[in-house]
Amino acid sequence: MDGPHHHILGNALRAIKVFAEAAFSVVILGEYGEEAGIHRK
Length: 41
Description:
The chain is mostly helical. It is built from 1 helix and no strands. The protein is rod-shaped and about 50 Å long. The model has no long low-confidence stretch (mean pLDDT about 80).
């Protein structure tokens, strides 16, 4: 019984994963970006 709820849950988990990866990359760039000459305030 893979109804529409399963599809919605899969999309939500995928969105959370993408968001987590984006947030992680922002943290990494925020920590090491200055060493690369990137200044963001």
